[in-house]
Amino acid sequence: MTFNAKAEALRLKNEKKLISKKRFKPSKLDIHKHKLLALHKEATSIACLQRWLLRKGVKTHWSTVKRWIDKNA
Which terminus of the chain has fewer CB atoms gathered within 10 Å of its CB, N or C? Predict the structure, then answer.
């Protein structure tokens, strides 16, 4: 039995496509998008945004808020 590297590589790539499907789950911060962006525009710190979200009932980590702001602002 001979080893066919091309065929094996093709099979592995196809398996990867099946395994690593993109999973998209919307962020719980998206609900407050307009208010968060408005507060950020007023030079509110990330920590203040996190506290504001906590008052709204959204428990999240500081780094999550920062990543979300970096992505959406």
Answer: N
Q: In Å, how far from its chain's centre is CA 35?
A: 19
Contact of 61 with 47, CB cutoff 8 Å: no
For residue 46, give both structure tokens: 């990330």
Return the biggest CA–CA distance within the chain.
Answer: 69
pTM attached to this predicted model:
0.66
What is the pLDDT, as a whole number, of residue 17?
A: 83
